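This part of the workshop introduces the protein records we will be handling. A record pairs a protein's sequence with a compact description of its fold. Backbone structure tokens are a discrete shorthand for how the chain folds in space. The question running through the whole workshop is how a given chain folds. The record below serves as our worked example for the rest of this section.
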Amino acid sequence: MANNPFLSDAAANAAANAVCALCNGGTIEVRSGAQPANANQAASGTLLVTLTFAATAYGAAAAGVATANAIGSANAVATGTAAWFRAKTSGGGAVYDGSVGTSGADLNLSSVSLTTGGNVAVTSLTYTQTE
């Protein structure tokens, strides 16, 4: 028998809020290269920039989607093309990975072409819990 669960909106919101609370005061590592299969695997690619979540990282989820509160900009520590990110707890533990782009990605930046010392600004970040 297949394992095929589907969540209600209330359950998806609760799950999203729980995951996102782990990011409070944590960081976002933006990297180049191929994204690992899951956030349990070691991070791959070059670390391009580390951004910091607010003390309350996300607003409350609606329909399973949580939007990050304001994330300050930071300067890139390496040159490369941003391809994926890893959200981490304040203690440095992996929470989840996602896509990076300039629009339509989990994490949207003003540009994915990063240069050492260049300012990196977040335009939006969302976490989506599948229902």
Q: What stands out?
A: The chain has a mean pLDDT of 96. The radius of gyration is 15 Å.
